[in-house]
């Protein structure tokens, strides 16, 4: 009923198949739920519910009829289930879950549950669990699946929810319900499912659709045009004839344009046929380049020795394919040689600016004389039901199509909608220079009926959305110039100016860097903005700002991309926005974002003690998985709990990372060829159908590190010597405790002391971040040392916190007791002074790097930062010395134990008439 895998109202330890997206509607009085659920990771199921409560008004008791049109109470709920252990031969599956993680938490609960299947056909499933406060106590569930009627199941459970404690239960049917057994009947047919259940005194029902987004596509490409056939090419001519008569190049351009290639440039240079182009329809890079190469091979003049194809985005060169053996290329395209044999004759690499063919090619000019771009109505084209469209070979495009928008949870009405006709016009003005525009005519809407004014105390950068929606029926949503540039290999830039979006206009730019290490990328975006007026034409408001956001994008296993943006947002607040998204095999992307800034949004839904932070989830679906022909079009939505002003960004005129992301992903997948030849015998090849990039089990590596650390632990004499040295250092520091604290107390509040204290507070986080950066971006040696550093940090922090509780020393500035000594006991057992946790972490972080790279100056960096805690009167000198000793000792021990983590051997062995080489590596 809640969208999670389980029985009726009770959960199981099962999670749906990886990548499954489900949505449905259930009713179990007094609750109705419109829900969506997804298995975001193979072991993590997330659910969002929009729960209505019959019998309770949404805004009852509000003055002046506020919210009277809202109807019954509705609440947004987010649930999560984490499967800790999958089911084994003997062991059951084990999962923990949490309900109503955010917001009002009317249905908050936690549970743990175990599930086991039985029977020869494993068609019996039993679960037992416990929760609090919802479900409340022990619960159980069982499912019997019929073997004679596939898809039909009988379910039963002991419902342990204490409904009488639910929100306003005394005024709803929940107050009449009690825990007890429930029986149900369910049926699954393909993607569809339904369930009906009998409770003690009522029935409940649930219906849903489950879409397996882990599959590559749902429909065969029956309407996909075939690749270019060589029999349709004209008779081949010599290179001299090609150069003399521009019609030969024009014929190649026309053949490519008919296959939806755009921005086509062709050049014959000393036996090399060079092409620069893009394709706005074909979704796979390798497949697009394969079709272009097949066509170029058919038109290439006699004597051509090689073909170079440079694939572009907005005329910026991204990837270059060089084919050196045209006979081998022909054999591969016709299925005569294997992919492995063909790979020796092709080079796939990042493009440089020199790879791009210039605009002034005669063949192009001749081809452009017969453009053939016609305006016409298209039905069911690239995912649009109907559209009026025209597009030429230079990607100049005009389109008119219907659009629908929905808004939830305004007090004056739970659902608001807008139906509109949207027109887009994009015009190429020069190399990399485009005019992009969008116009909207609202046809039918009820958003203008919104009455609630924004209560935000921040500049109203987004929360006045209702004013914009009712400002005018006709609006210019976008009208701007975009200039795209390639500064160097893997370095791109954009400069923009004009009307960015419905709310803002301005000027700005972006720079994107794509390193050869394909795990990460970085960009910087700066925009000077002015808020547009409500009418949506050229009117304006008084608000102006400059936003500046630096972004780091990093790819993890399971095709997860983490993006961290830091800088200045629209409301002039500064902070960080974290984005997580997972790409499934189908190309569907599921993600979420969370923003933390200094905006301090304390008005409802925020409070002074818990300011609101912007957050939400999003889904992007490539339409090609559901169409009979290929397309790059996508459909998507994003949902945020509230429309607020904190942590907001302007809509990008053309985000460079999004533009380059898919091309780069295809480039680095296996051999970069993708579905290049479109051969039937290769559809299961890893390059065509890549396997999921999963995370290897960490346990073998973890076990090795533990074994190494234990085997090299200090001996008893070493322990004794180390203890004596550490004790002497701490006693020497204790002698300085009072003199130093008296000096610091006299100068406390000065700019120098305050700055030093800030350094001391931030140093552990900075050093831990540096260690994590070494793991993420370093070579194998630095990654190993970074991992040792992180282990040292964790172990030192644990040792330090344990010692704090045992010693219980008061901090400087606290009451020292009758003796006036610095080692008096503190009542705050969790926040005592000895030793300094900051010092322990700082020295633990730097010690492995200092010893591995012979860099003793790192100890000085840790010492200066640690003494900042003394300058801030948070610790005594002896606390810092003790913490430093703990961090140094643990860091040294783990470095000695784990520094040699190569476990990779390369050997060359000469023989009498042979030379052999071997490489062994262990993972």
Automatic annotation (TrEMBL):
Residue ranges of every copy of the Phosphatidic acid phosphatase type 2/haloperoxidase domain listed in the record: 784-895
InterPro entries registered for this protein in UniProt: PAP2/HPO, PAP2/HPO_sf, YbjH
Domain of life: Bacteria
Protein name stated in the entry: YjbH domain-containing protein
């Amino acid at each position: 009923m809640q969208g999670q895998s389980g029985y009726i109202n009770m959960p199981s330890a099962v999670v749906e198949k990886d990548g499954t997206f489900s949505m449905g509607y259930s009713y179990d009085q007094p609750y109705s739920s419109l829900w969506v659920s997804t298995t975001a990771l193979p072991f993590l199921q997330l659910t969002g519910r929009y729960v209505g409560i019959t019998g309770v008004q949404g805004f009852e008791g509000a003055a002046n009829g506020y919210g009277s049109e809202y109807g019954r109470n509705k609440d947004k709920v987010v649930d999560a289930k984490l499967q800790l252990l999958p089911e084994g031969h003997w062991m059951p599956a084990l999962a923990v879950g949490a309900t109503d993680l955010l917001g009002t938490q009317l249905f908050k609960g936690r549970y743990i549950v175990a599930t086991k299947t039985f029977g020869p056909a494993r068609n019996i499933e039993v679960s037992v669990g416990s929760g609090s406060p919802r479900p409340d106590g022990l619960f159980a569930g069982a499912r019997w699946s019929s073997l004679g009627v596939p898809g039909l199941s009988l379910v039963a459970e002991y419902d342990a929810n204490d409904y009488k404690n639910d929100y306003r239960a005394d005024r709803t049917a929940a107050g009449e319900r009690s825990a007890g057994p429930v029986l149900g009947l369910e049926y699954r047919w393909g993607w569809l499912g339904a369930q009906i259940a009998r409770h003690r005194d009522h029935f409940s029902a649930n219906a849903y659709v489950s879409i397996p987004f882990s599959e590559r596509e749902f429909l065969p490409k029956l309407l996909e045009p075939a690749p270019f056939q060589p029999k349709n090419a004209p008779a081949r001519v010599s290179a001299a004839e090609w150069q003399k008569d521009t019609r030969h190049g024009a014929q190649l351009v026309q053949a490519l344009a008919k296959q939806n290639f755009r921005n086509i440039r062709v050049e014959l240079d000393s036996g090399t046929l060079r092409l620069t182009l893009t394709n706005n329809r074909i979704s796979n890079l390798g497949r697009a380049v394969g079709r272009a190469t097949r066509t170029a091979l058919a038109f290439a003049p006699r004597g051509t020795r090689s073909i170079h194809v440079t694939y572009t985005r907005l005329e910026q060169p991204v990837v270059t394919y060089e084919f050196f053996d045209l006979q081998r290329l022909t054999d591969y395209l016709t299925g005569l040689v294997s992919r492995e044999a063909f790979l020796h004759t092709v080079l796939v690499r990042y493009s440089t600016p020199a790879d791009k063919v210039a605009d002034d090619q005669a063949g192009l000019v001749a081809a452009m004389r017969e453009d053939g771009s016609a305006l016409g109505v298209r039905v069911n084209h690239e995912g649009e039901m109907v559209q009026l469209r025209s597009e030429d070979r230079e990607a100049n495009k005009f389109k008119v199509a219907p659009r629908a928008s929905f808004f939830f949870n305004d007090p004056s009405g739970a659902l608001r909608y807008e139906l509109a006709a949207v027109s887009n016009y994009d015009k190429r003005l020069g190399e990399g220079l485009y005019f992009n525009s969008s116009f909207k005519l609202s046809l039918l809407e009820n958003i203008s009926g919104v009455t609630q004014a924004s209560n935000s105390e921040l500049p109203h950068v987004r929360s006045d959305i209702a004013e914009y929606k009712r400002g005018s029926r006709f609006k210019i949503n976008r009208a701007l110039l975009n200039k795209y540039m390639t500064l160097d290999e893997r370095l791109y830039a954009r400069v923009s100016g004009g009307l960015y979006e419905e709310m803002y206009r301005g000027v700005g730019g972006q720079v994107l860097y794509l390193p050869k290490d394909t795990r990460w990328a970085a960009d910087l975006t700066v925009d000077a903005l002015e808020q547009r007026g409500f009418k949506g034409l050229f009117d304006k408001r008084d608000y102006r700002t400059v936003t500046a956001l630096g972004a780091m994008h990093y790819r993890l296993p399971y095709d997860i991309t983490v993006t961290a943006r830091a800088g200045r947002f629209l409301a002039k607040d500064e902070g960080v926005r974290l984005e997580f998204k997972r790409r499934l095999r189908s190309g569907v992307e599921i993600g979420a974002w969370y923003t933390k800034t200094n905006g301090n949004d304390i008005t409802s839904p925020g409070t002074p003690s818990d300011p609101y932070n912007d957050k939400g989830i999003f889904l992007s679906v490539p339409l090609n998985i559901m169409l009979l022909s290929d397309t790059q079009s996508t459909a998507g939505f994003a949902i945020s709990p509230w429309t607020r002003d904190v942590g907001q960004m302007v809509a990008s005129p053309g985000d460079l990372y999004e533009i380059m992301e898919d091309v780069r992903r295809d480039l680095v997948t296996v051999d970069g060829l993708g579905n290049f030849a479109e051969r039937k015998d290769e559809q299961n090849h890893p390059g065509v159908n890549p396997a999921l990039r999963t995370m290897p089990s960490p346990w073998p590596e973890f076990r090795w590190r533990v074994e190494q650390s234990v085997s090299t632990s200090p001996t008893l004499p070493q322990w004794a010597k180390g203890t004596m040295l550490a004790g002497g250092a701490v006693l020497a520091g204790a002698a300085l405790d009072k003199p130093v604290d008296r000096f610091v107390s006299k100068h406390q509040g000065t700019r120098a002391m305050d700055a030093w204290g800030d350094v001391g507070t931030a140093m552990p986080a900075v050093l831990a971040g540096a260690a994590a950066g070494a793991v993420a971006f370093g070579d194998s040696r630095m990654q190993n040392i970074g991992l040792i550093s992180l282990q040292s940090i964790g172990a030192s922090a644990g040792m330090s916190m344990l010692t704090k509780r045992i010693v219980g020393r008061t901090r400087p500035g606290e009451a020292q007791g009758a003796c006036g000594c610095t080692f008096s006991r503190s009542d705050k057992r969790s926040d005592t002074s000895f030793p300094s946790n900051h010092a322990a972490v700082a020295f633990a972080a730097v010690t492995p790097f200092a010893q591995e790279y012979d860099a003793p100056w790192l100890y000085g960096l840790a010492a200066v930062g640690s003494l900042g805690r003394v300058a801030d009167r948070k610790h005594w000198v002896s606390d810092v010395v003790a913490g430093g000793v703990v961090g140094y000792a643990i860091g040294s021990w783990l470095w000695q134990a784990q520094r040699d983590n190569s476990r990779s051997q390369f050997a060359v062995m000469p023989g009498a008439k042979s030379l052999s080489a071997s490489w062994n590596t262990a993972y």
